[in-house]
């Protein structure tokens, strides 16, 4: 018998919202509609819920009673509300409720809100983005925790054009939300200082992504003193991402964001064989293998970031090709058809 699915999360239909929470929620929805095991998929879109919280609550309750299986993907602000709502409703219905965690904040959330644990343990499955997250939750006596890495639908037809990755100037980029906690300032400072030290533009840095209004002025000030070697390039449509990224030498990801989980930008980079130079923060070292498919450096250490950039630039052609090919092959682990297939098997 085909099942009816309910999906509750930030779907942001009819918007251009491109934050990690929304992208992953949409990716889950887009993949589930491909499966004929599900006769109907109902949704509750939590994006912009403050405009009409009563309507959202009614939609969530209606979706609950229409569905056989519920998949919830709440952010930190919505977790306490939705998990309590659905667990209470489930006292009378015994629905199959699964929680896909987006980001790496749940362990700390439990520490700050220990009462949430009893609700989490009423769920049929909790899916986290890294093995360490799984271990962290299990040490807090959370049950039914499963590993489900981040994923994307990938068009793997890209051939690495090494000629576009030559220099100087060598082209690097960031590809994330443009905010202080993503380490954008550290990336700009590293590149600006290196070019000043060398006396010419050894590196150009292009910054992509939506800008945090509170960081905009600071970013603009930092770009001004970079002597035009750093530029903000705006946002990129999902379909144009591979073509945009494949011409760079490396992607920089100096994050120290407290809620960091499995950054989707890693998958975008791997998909075109682009090595990532990332801070050794949270769960990054579970995804980036140092000097295998990318490079790691100590968090908030601009000097170490500079050393890793130089290390990558100084690789001979053969060693650089190896690290790029390793990045490309890593993307196979995070293809949507692989990850979602396992998830659907577990649901049914």
UniProtKB/TrEMBL annotation:
UniProt keywords, alphabetically: Hydrolase
One function term, GO molecular function aspect: glycosyltransferase activity
CDD domains associated with the record: GT4_PimA-like (cd03801)
Lineage top rank: taxon: Bacteria
Residues of the Glycosyl transferase family domain: 165-325
InterPro entries: Glyco_trans_1
Protein name stated in the entry: Glycoside hydrolase
Organism of derivation: Pontibacillus halophilus JSM 076056 = DSM 19796
């Amino acid at each position: 018998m085909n099942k009816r699915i309910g999906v509750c999360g930030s779907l942001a239909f009819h918007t251009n919202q491109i934050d990690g929470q929304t992208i992953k929620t949409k990716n889950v929805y887009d993949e589930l509609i491909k499966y004929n095991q599900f006769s109907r998929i109902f949704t509750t879109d939590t994006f912009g819920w403050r405009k009409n919280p009563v309507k959202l609550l009614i939609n969530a309750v209606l979706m609950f009673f229409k569905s056989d299986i519920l998949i919830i993907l709440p952010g930190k602000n919505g977790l306490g509300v939705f998990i309590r709502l659905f667990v209470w409703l489930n006292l009378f219905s015994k629905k199959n409720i699964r929680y896909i965690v987006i980001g790496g904040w749940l362990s700390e959330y439990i520490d700050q809100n220990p009462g949430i644990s009893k609700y989490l343990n009423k769920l049929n499955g909790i899916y986290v983005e890294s093995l360490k997250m799984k271990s962290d939750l299990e040490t807090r006596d959370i049950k039914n925790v499963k590993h489900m890495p981040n994923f994307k639908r990938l068009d793997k037809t890209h051939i690495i054009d090494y000629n576009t990755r030559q220099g100087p100037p060598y082209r690097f980029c960031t590809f994330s939300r443009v905010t202080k906690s993503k380490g954008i300032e550290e990336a700009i400072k590293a590149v600006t200082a290196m070019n000043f030290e060398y006396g010419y533009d050894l590196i150009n840095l292009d910054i992509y992504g939506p800008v945090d209004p509170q960081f905009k002025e600071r970013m603009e000030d930092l770009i001004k003193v970079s002597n035009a070697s750093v530029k903000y390039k705006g946002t990129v449509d999902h379909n144009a991402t591979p073509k945009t990224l494949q011409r760079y030498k490396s992607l920089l990801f100096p994050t120290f964001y407290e809620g960091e989980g499995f950054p989707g930008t890693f998958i975008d980079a791997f998909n075109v064989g682009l090595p990532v130079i990332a801070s050794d923060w949270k769960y990054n070292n579970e995804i980036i293998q140092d000097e295998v498919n990318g490079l790691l450096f100590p968090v908030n250490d601009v000097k170490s970031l500079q050393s890793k950039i130089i290390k990558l630039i100084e690789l001979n052609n053969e060693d650089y090709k190896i690290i790029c090919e390793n990045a490309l092959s890593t993307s196979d682990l995070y293809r949507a058809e692989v990850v979602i297939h396992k998830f659907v098997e577990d649901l049914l």
